[in-house]
Structures are given as structure tokens and as C-alpha cells.
Amino acid sequence: MTAVLTAYVLMWPVIVFGVLFTIVRGFAKDIKKSRDQGHPII
Predict the structure, then answer these.
(1) Mapping DSSP to helix (H, G, I), strand (E, B) and coil, where does residue 36 land?
(2) How many C-beta atoms surround the C-beta of residue 22 within 10 A?
(3) What parts of the sequence cross the membrane (predicted)?
(4) How many angstroms separate the CA atoms of 22 and 17, rounded?
(5) What are phi and psi of 39, to 5 degrees?
(6) What is the mean pLDDT of the segment spanning 21-36?
(7) Which residues contact 40 (CB under 8 A, 6 or more apart)?
């Protein structure tokens, strides 16, 4: 039972990291695209 609880607790940081990585990657692509086109990001 302890191993299951440990795995459950440790999976949340991995999920959060994956979501944050996806958001940051998309934002970085948008910044690069706007710089290439000469537009401000805001």
C-alpha cells in the first residue's frame, strides 16, 4: 500500500512538469514567430 501511495504522490510533479513544459514550449514558439515577423509579443 505504501508503494502505491508513494507512486501516486510522485506522479503529480511529473504531470505538472509536463503541462508547464508544454505551455512554455508553445510560448517560446510564439515569441520566435513574432520576432521573425517583426511584431511585438504584446
Answers:
(1) helix
(2) 10
(3) 6-28
(4) 9
(5) -100, 150
(6) 96
(7) 34
Q: Residues 39, 21, 12, CA angle at the centre, nearest 5°? A: 150
- Write the DSSP string, 12-33: HHHHHHHHHHHHHHHHHHHHHH
Report d(CA 34, CA 40) in Å as an integer.
6
pLDDT digits over 4-24, tens only? Answer: 999 999 999 999 999 999 999
Q: How far is it, in rounded angstroms, from Cα 22 to Cα 38? A: 24
Percent of the chain residues past pLDDT 90, beyond the cut: 90
For cell 517560446, the residue is 28
| Mean model confidence pLDDT for the chain | 95
